[in-house]
Amino acid sequence: MHGSFPRLDIGPLSEYREDHFMIARFSDYVHEHQSLVFPHRHSFYHLVLFTEGSGRHTIDFHHFQAEPDQIYFMIPGQVHTWDFEAGMEGYVVNFSDSFFTSFLLQPEYLDTFSFFDQDSSNNVLKISENVRERIGQLFEELLAQNARATHWRDDMVRVLLLQIFLIIEQSDAVDRRKSAAKGKNATVRNFIRLIDKHYDKVRLPGQYADMLNVTPNHLNALCKEHMGMQAGELIRNRIVLEAKRLLINLDLTVSEIAYRLNFNDNSYFTKFFRKETGMTPEDFRKSPAI
């Protein structure tokens, strides 16, 4: 089983990173990239809408059954794999982290959507029946616009993608509580963004509070109100997530992973991981969760 995890970083899609955007019918995409059956991570945003077929896919150790009218969203850095049966169809879109930078006044605008989330349990949605037809039309328009070599092509693609995101965010598919929690407080959003940048070096809530110009108590209160957990737990969860992502790469020893995550030694990392997950790093590597 572990032989199917040769690496996390993915090379065959680098040409799409250079172009900043790619859309294809899912069957064509899978046929062209048949080797992508092992867990891998992208440096770009990735989303798939299924219209036909069935199978399984995993995003950051959460397992999902693929089915028609399901859409999944992935942010840069997340790890996923899939096992689809024949006859899968739909649409796949990849776009770079900078694709919307020059288009939107608010650089972090995509972060406000509930489905672009580090918690992969929020990444997969069933498209509501009342918007399915419109969403399908927008994906077809994306394909058509992408085929046109016009000066406004990229901006038309951006507008169509934003329509898709906004329609889905406002649809019945989205958990209103999760959507409100993510979009309501700018300090919490900035805190999560800072964790994602500095989790391997900055571990204390007080250090993040200084970056955000708030007191540690205020930061803690905001996290408990909007996320349902303390600031320290959010930091630890992000470290654990990255540890799990690294552990499925068997080219790295546990000691090397501990070093990458800036733990003083292997035993301290093992103690931390066991306290947070209930198992040792070695046990995690043997578990069916991956």
Automatic annotation (TrEMBL):
Using the record's annotation, list all stretches that form the HTH araC/xylS-type domain.
189-287
InterPro entries assigned? AraC-bd, Homeodomain-like_sf, HTH-like, HTH_AraC, Tscrpt_reg_AraC-type_HTH
Kindly indicate whether the keyword DNA-binding belongs to this entry.
yes
Q: Which keywords does this chain's UniProt record carry?
A: DNA-binding, Transcription, Transcription regulation
For this protein, the record's Gene3D superfamilies field holds: Homeodomain-like, Regulatory protein AraC
Q: Which Pfam families match?
A: AraC_binding, HTH_18
Out of the domains of life, which is the source?
A: Bacteria
Quote the protein name from its UniProt record.
Answer: AraC family transcriptional regulator
